[in-house]
Each structure stands twice: as C-alpha cells, then as structure tokens.
Amino acid sequence: MKKIWLAGFAVLAMGAATMALAQGDVIAARRAGLKRMGDFMTAMKPVADAHAPGTQFVGTIEEMIAFYQGLPARFPAGSGTGDTKALPTIWSDPVGFNAAAAGVVEKLQALRVAAAGGDGAAFEAAWKAVGPACGTCHRTYRAR
Ligand code: HEC
Fold first, then answer.
1. Residue range 131-136: average pLDDT?
2. CB of residue 111 inside a 6 A radius of ligand 1
3. Whose CA is closest to 141, among 108, 112, 104?
4. How many CA atoms are closer than 13 Å to the CA of 118, on its beta-carbon side?
5. Continuous H helices in 50-93
6. Which residues neighbour 135 within 8 Å (Cβ) at sequence distance 6 or greater?
C-alpha cells in the first residue's frame, strides 16, 4: 500500500515539474515574441521620423497584427510566476487585458493601411499612435 502511494506521489511530482517547465517555455516564447515586436517598432522609427512612406513594412505589420491577436493566449493561467514581468492583474482582469491587446491591433491595422498607402505623413502619424497603445497595457499589466 505504502509503495503504491509513493509511486503515485512520484508521478504527481513529475507532473508538477513538467508543468513548471512548460510554463517556463511559454514565458520565454512570449518574451522573445514581445522583444521581436519592440525591435520592429524600433526599425520603423527612423522611417517614421523622416516622414518616409513605410511601404516596406507592410509584411512586418501584418506579422505584428497576428502576434497581438494571439497575445492573450500567450498568458495561460499559471504563467504569472517565474522569469516574467506579467502582473496578476492579467488574470484578475482578463476583459481589460484583452481590450488592451485589441487596442494595439486596431492601431496596427491603421498603420498597415498607412504603410500600404505609401503616404509618409500618414505613416508617421499612425506609427506614433501605436506606442501609447502599447503603454496602456504595460502600465496596468506589466511590472516595471
Ligand atoms: C495586452 C497587453 C500588452 C500589449 C498590448 C503590449 N504588451 Fe508588451 N508586454 C506585456 C507584458 C505583460 C509583458 C511582460 C511579459 C513577461 O515578462 O512575461 C510585456 C513585455 C514587453 C517587452 C519585453 C520583452 C522581454 O524582453 O522580456 C517588450 C519589448 C514589449 N512588451 C513591447 C511591446 C510593444 C512594442 C507593444 C506594442 C506594439 C506591446 N509590447 C504591447 C503586455 C503587453
């Protein structure tokens, strides 16, 4: 009886360890993705600052739209501890968190239209509107 209990405990402990590992992967993957998005914004900055058309960024912006549409799914329950700056507010206020993600998607869709249109002034204005939308989420849902 004792042996069976111990075996059961070992399986449970292994399961917990596997789950912790899996959450670590989820956190590393979402952080790498967010870093990539930050790098994209940085790459567009000199073009926006020069009021140049951002036609070459249409594909990049489409990748960003897809990433932010899928962002909420990158924060499964249990992925708030470990090597992460995700705040518990993500899971206590999922409606607000999803709305903040949707807000960025909306700004990126406008940026995509501006980039495809080839008008430098429109690209600059639309690019400048994205950063504040990122900040709206970071202020409430990301630790400093
Ligand atoms: C819906 C919320 C939300 C939106 C919108 C959002 N972020 Fe974040 N961002 C986060 C959270 C939460 C973290 C912390 C993730 C972690 O540490 O697990 C983060 C982390 C980051 C990081 C750090 C990644 C790393 O190296 O650890 C960068 C860079 C970043 N975001 C850029 C951006 C940019 C650029 C935008 C807008 C285009 C944006 N984010 C929009 C929530 C958001």
1. 98
2. no
3. 104
4. 0
5. 58-69, 89-92
6. none
Residues found in the chain = 144
- Per-residue pLDDT reduced to its tens digit, 93-128: 999 999 999 999 999 999 999 999 999 999 999 999
Tell me, what's the pLDDT at 9? 54
Please report, rounded to a whole number, the percentage of residues in the chain having pLDDT higher than 90: 83
Taking CA atoms only, the protein residue closest to ligand 1 atom 6 is: 134
Q: Report the CATH architecture of 2-141.
A: Up-down Bundle (1.20)
Non-local (6+) Cβ contacts of 55 within 8 A are: 115, 116, 118
List, in order, residues 6 or more apart from 142 with CB less than 8 Å away.
85, 86, 87
Q: Determine if ligand 1 sits within 6 Å of the CB of residue 36.
A: no
Assign 22 a pLDDT band (cuts: 50, 70, 90).
confident
